[in-house]
Amino acid sequence: MAGAQRLVPAVLTAGPADLRRYLAQIDAGVLTDGDMDGLLVMVLDALDHWATFRETGERNALYELAIRSIELVDFQVEDADPADFLAAPAMAAEYDRLMRALTD
């Protein structure tokens, strides 16, 4: 856990090359393909999109980050209705937060 605590501040300030190096280091340490916790896969995917945005400035990478954020809230909200996923207060709040962030 101490290693993870050191990594979080580094990820927040790391440049794209550093993020790619961290992702490669994690990938090299994975012992089994396809047997990773789904939440960890989401986090690593989000880091990959963030690194892409930092490298290229492509808005599509931000779009993908927004999708991952919605997926994370969906993962955490157990009573979410698939027919109306914004009905859950946490989901609606995350959607509003994303809309404000993406339109500022």
What count of helical segments does DSSP give? Answer: 5
Kindly report the average pLDDT value.
78
Number of domains: 1
How far apart are the first and last residues' alpha carbons, in Å?
35 Å
Q: Structural class of the secondary elements?
A: mainly alpha
Provide a descriptive summary of the structure in words.
It is a single chain. With 104 residues, the protein is mostly helical. It has one domain (2-103). It has five helices and no strands. Helix 2 (16-29) packs antiparallel against helix 3 and helix 4 packs antiparallel against helix 5. The N and C termini lie far apart (35 Å).
Name the descriptors:
mainly alpha, 104 residues, 0% strand, single chain, 5 helices
Blueprint of the fold:
Blueprint: H1 2-13, H2 16-29, H3 38-56, H4 59-76, H5 89-103
Helix pairs in contact: 2-3, 3-4, 4-5
Summarize the structure.
This protein is mostly helical. Helix content is 75%, strand content 0%.
